[in-house]
Design brief:
Keywords: Carbohydrate metabolism, Fucose metabolism, Glycosyltransferase, Membrane, Repeat, Transferase, Transmembrane, Transmembrane helix. Belongs to the glycosyltransferase GT106 family. This is O-fucosyltransferase family protein. The chain is mostly helical. Among the domains are: 143 residues, Rossmann fold; 237 residues, Serine Threonine Protein Phosphatase 5, Tetratricopeptide repeat (Alpha Horseshoe), CATH 1.25.40; 159 residues, no CATH class. The protein has 51 helices and 17 strands. The longest helix has 21 residues. The C terminus is likely disordered.
Length: 1026
């Protein structure tokens, strides 16, 4: 009550100097609730550190004495010699300016007897009482701050310097006093007085003394004046190990570990001093921060040769270095070599396993620990929290059952896990326990509660928690994590307006924000599609020095790319000094979304070359890009990387690989990968179902669907879409209709427009127009143009002229200038021999803007080129391009005239005529947009006889300037790509493989092969040698 009345809040750190307290837990509980940051020597020091003091009351008292001597404020609650000695020593050491509070117990008892007194009156009485005791009119809580002590320091400094000049300079008492003032300047960050003291020392001529220089250097480091410290270091003529250690530690602590390592190298080159354990600890810390494992190993060797393996502190630093560098095997060897591992050693090793996700090893090591402390429990709980596992809650419950004290970190980890799994009931239970334990007013616990309620979609409770902390806190701006949590809650729950208002409030109050605040504000701008507002937030980030922070930078890349400014996003990417996996992932995902697939693979190659760790999400994006390019070779390279990196068994990776092989026509490899996967979930089954459907293996797709149902896996909307698409390609009307009804009745899923499209197309292609029209009428939403287009195409095939006119009138009324509708109608009219109507559609098409034509591409030495014919033939990779057109004409003449080879095949697919040409070992990948704007991959692999190959080093490229018409679309400058040369063969027959069924045609056949409109691709033409 007295401390709170003096103005100390719950963020005050309090050290309790006392012996063993009778029934301490019960008596200290009220104090802990008001001041959670209450410490004793038992809580600050480990059991190993206290071992030499146990059993010696005088030694234990000396510990308390030392802490109290250098505390900012000393409050005594008793008389006796101990506090009197301490007060005298503090007055002498600090020139009579040490703040000591000795309350008047009689007045305090009278004041506390008034049970109806208000807090305001109580505080006024306390300030009035203590102002006479400590001799000041200000609040006692301020007596430990820099502002309260700065003015007194100068007086103390002057008294020291006066005595310093009037007595021998090397008097022990004067030396002690001047060094004490230097240290106090650093601890209180009183840089003006420190510089004045530095100047006076120079005038006295003792500046070159290494003892004074090292203390001045430490003072500048404590005040964070690295430039001044560096200038002092350069001017120091005499340096010892402590000098180098101070500078190395300073640069490591200030976020510049690379500079710290340069100082270490400079010291070794000077050969002036022999490193000791303290210096090695500072250097190893820098190695851990920068992730320099090789340098860390070299220093480890030096430590071993210097016989410093007995130093537990040094070995703990070495252990921490290996953990931070990700070398857990080396860390475990160091841990096993420590004779008597301290609790720090155990906790570092457990924490390292947890951060790497090796929870089995972490738990085993935890159970081997003799006496796990609170930090040990928190380490194992935090490890489970990183994996978003319920194991964190299990260990929290075990900790509670064992009667161990849960702190704010424990509560934060438990609440984070509850928020991830949306365990609202448990969040409320922990909230209640937090209030009972006195941590309800702790900033970080309050932030975790706001996060948890927000993730559980209980935004009102989160706002209530935020407001409660605002009321009980003296300055809520001191707790920025709470503001960030509330801002994140608004973003998660899509309350963008409230988020913008909160950002404005933070800015208007002048709060010092961090990268997390800017990141959340930028996410709001992305959600609102407000690029201009995002630029304003970026401007604030620039003025605050956070623009090039990797967290802010990754979201800025999202902001620019979301607005279509991919070049600006790439420019910002190259400006970032540090690029973590989030930054790389952000750019790769946007390249994938925007179809810049060749750049995706290029970025991935850069990541591998720079030895940047990739995750399964980046690999999934790269595999998707390879699928879009039909780049089987590049995809196999990524697959090999997955095997080496251990990502092959990840569900996301397996699904992406199956999709890759399916789109490249290598479904057998996809099936082999599927069967090798031990844990098959819904996502994995969905991938193989869609892959089988894309490769014309509809019955296998249906079989996999039935298999997952039997295994108890619940299909999702994408699973149903995949199996319905497979049935649509194969003409499986009954199977598709059964699955469609199963989706609505058994799983209570409302079909989307894509599901209806599959059934409508399937029914209409089978001639069931009545059923298709009834299904369209039953749709819970208005049918879009894809539904009508599918019905329209089938009408042309089945000669349904009246229905064509009805659909045409409906489409032209709603979308009179849609290019795809006009092209489809023109082709349908042509099929029905309604030439006048077809010609009218063509005239309208000429007047409207057509969509961008499709592109063809060619891959040469892992590079993808989208250029046209004129550019491709001038590429240096094609040294004999001048032969192309001459040889092209000869090839065409041979194909047409030589009837010993089946040279021309015409077939009908979806009611439209296509023409295929048979060439020498050519792999032609075409992405043709067919009716309903759906993409279909058609793979032609053929052999042609009696033809001379071009002379080329392992690569044959042919360009044919042909025009193929498909659904009204013209595709020019087709690119044919041959990766190898095959000896000429005389062909006796060709076999067309369509949907797994072989259709033969003898040599010289001129008959057309009519392919069923329901048979899917790919269509593979191969030869049988005669």
């Amino acid at each position: 009550m007295m401390l709170r009345g003096m103005g100390f809040d719950n963020n005050t750190s309090i050290y309790l100097a006392s012996g063993k307290i009778y029934q301490a837990e019960r008596h200290l509980d009220p104090l802990l609730k008001m001041f959670p940051l209450l410490y004793t020597k038992e809580s600050l020091a480990t059991s190993d550190e206290l071992a030499p003091f146990k059993g010696y009351s005088s030694r234990l008292a000396a510990l308390d004495y030392t802490v109290c001597l250098f505390s900012e404020v000393f409050v005594t609650t008793q008389g006796g010699n101990f506090p009197h000695f301490l007060m005298g020593h503090r007055r002498f050491l600090f020139g009579g300016h040490a703040k000591t509070i000795q309350p008047d117990k009689r007045k305090l008892v009278i004041l506390l007897q008034d049970m109806d007194i208000s807090w305001k009156a109580f505080k006024n009485e306390m300030e009035s009482m203590l102002s006479r005791v400590i001799g000041r009119d200000e609040s006692p809580v301020k007596c430990g701050t820099c502002d309260a002590k700065a003015g007194k320091l100068l007086q103390l400094y002057r008294s020291c310097t006066d005595r310093f000049t009037s007595s021998p300079p090397w008097a022990i008492m004067d030396l002690h006093r001047i060094v004490s003032v230097i240290r106090q300047c650093g601890r209180l960050r009183a840089f003006r007085h420190g510089r004045s003291l530095h100047a006076h020392i120079i005038k006295l001529g003792v500046f070159n003394d290494v003892f004074f220089a090292n203390n001045l250097l430490a003072m500048y480091v404590d005040i964070s004046l690295l430039k001044d410290a560096r200038r002092l270091f350069d001017e120091t003529l005499e340096r010892n190990v402590a000098t180098w250690t101070t500078m190395i530690s300073a640069y490591s602590s200030s976020g510049r570990p690379d500079t710290a390592l340069k100082f270490y190298v400079q010291m070794l080159e000077s050969k002036s001093e022999t490193p000791n354990g303290f210096l090695y600890s500072a250097v190893l810390k820098a190695c851990g921060l920068v992730g320099d494992l090789e340098s860390g190993k070299l220093i480890h060797g030096r430590v071993f040769r210097a016989n410093l393996g007995f130093d537990t502190v040094l070995m703990n630093t070495l252990l921490d270095m290996y953990v931070k560098c990700g070398s857990l095997s080396s860390a475990r060897k160091v841990f096993d070599d420590i004779l008597c591992p301290s609790s720090t050693s155990w906790n570092t090793m457990i924490s390292g396993y947890g951060k790497e996700g090796l929870m089995e090893e972490a738990v085993n090591l935890f159970y081997q620990m003799p006496e796990p402390d609170t930090v040990s429990w928190n380490s194992i709980i935090a490890g489970f929290g990183c994996k978003e596992s319920l194991g964190a809650l299990r260990f929290v419950c075990m900790m509670h059952r064992k009667g161990l004290k849960l702190d704010g970190f424990t509560f934060s980890c438990a609440l984070k896990t509850c928020g991830c799994f949306q365990l609202l009931v448990m969040v409320k239970q922990i909230h209640c326990y937090v209030n009972k334990s006195g941590f309800g007013s702790c900033c970080f616990t309050a932030s975790a509660l706001v996060d948890s309620y927000s993730n559980c979609n209980e935004l009102d409770e989160a706002i209530k928690m935020f407001d409660e902390y605002s009321c009980c806190s003296a300055s809520i701006l001191d707790c920025l994590p709470l503001w960030n949590s509330m801002l994140s809650g608004y973003v998660v729950n899509e309350q963008n307006s409230a988020a913008i208002n909160l950002v404005s409030q933070i800015h208007s109050l002048g709060a010092r924000v961090d990268s997390y605040t800017f990141g959340s504000a930028l996410k709001v701008c992305i959600n609102l599609q407000n690029f201009r507002l995002g630029l304003q937030v970026q401007g604030l980030a620039v003025t605050s020095g956070y623009e090039l922070d990797y967290v802010v930078g990754s979201i800025l890349i999202d902001l620019y790319a979301n607005d279509g400014k991919i070049k600006d996003a790439l420019r910002l990417f190259h400006r970032l000094p540090e690029k973590d996996i989030v930054v790389w992932s952000s750019l790769i995902s946007w390249y994938t979304k925007m179809g810049l697939n060749s750049l995706v693979f290029s970025l991935f190659r850069d990541m591998v070359n720079l030895d940047i760790e990739v995750d399964q999400f980046i690999i999934s994006s790269v595999l998707k890009a390879c699928s879009s390019l039909v780049g089987l070779g590049s995809g196999k390279q990524v697959h090999s990387f997955c095997v080496k990196s251990g990502y092959e068994s990840e569900r996301i990776t397996v699904t992406s690989l199956i999709d890759l092989y399916a789109k490249c026509g290598e479904i057998e490899d996809g099936l082999a990968l599927f069967y090798c996967t031990s844990e098959r979930d819904t996502v994995c089954y969905t991938g193989i179902i869609m892959g089988c459907g894309q490769n014309g293996r509809a019955m296998e797709a249906v079989g996999f669907f039935q298999e997952m149902i039997e295994l108890g896996l619940k299909p999702n909307e994408i699973t149903f879409l995949g199996v319905l698409s497979a049935c649509r390609h194969a003409g499986l009307v009954e199977e598709a209709w059964t699955i469609f009804k199963y989706m609505k009745t058994e799983y209570k899923m409302e079909p989307h427009i894509e599901h209806y499209y599959c059934i409508v197309e399937l029914l209409s292609q089978a001639g069931c127009f009545k059923e298709a029209e009834e299904l369209i009428a039953e749709m819970p939403f208005e049918p879009d143009q894809t539904i009508w287009n599918s019905l329209l195409g089938a009408c042309g095939t089945h000669k349904k002229t009246e229905l064509v006119n009805f659909i045409a009138e409906r489409l032209l009324t709603t979308l009179p200038e849609d290019p795809s509708i006009l092209v489809t109608l023109s082709n349908v009219y042509a099929t029905l021999e309604m030439w006048d109507d077809s010609r009218k559609m063509r005239e309208v098409i000429k007047k409207v803007d057509m969509k961008e034509a499709g592109k063809s591409w060619i891959q040469i030495k892992s590079s993808t080129h989208y250029k046209g014919l004129d550019h491709l033939i001038s590429m240096p990779e094609m040294p004999k391009h001048h032969h192309i057109f001459g040889n092209q004409r000869d090839l065409e003449r041979d194909v047409v005239l030589d009837y010993n080879v089946w040279s021309h095949v015409a077939f009908t697919l979806w009611g439209f005529q296509k023409t295929s040409f048979l060439w020498l070992s050519l792999l032609l990948y075409l992405m043709l947009r067919l009716i309903a704007a759906s993409r279909s991959l058609i793979l032609f692999s053929t052999l042609f006889a009696n033809m001379d190959a071009f002379d080329g080093p392992g690569m044959k490229i042919y360009l044919i300037n042909k025009k193929i018409e498909s659904a009204g679309h013209c595709i020019d400058n087709l690119v044919f790509y041959s990766s190898s040369y095959v000896e000429p063969l005389h062909c006796a027959e060709f076999i067309w493989t369509v949907g797994g069924t072989e259709m033969e045609s003898t040599s010289g056949a001129k008959d057309h092969i009519q392919l069923s409109s329901t048979l899917p691709g790919p269509y593979i033409a191969r030869t049988c040698p005669g």
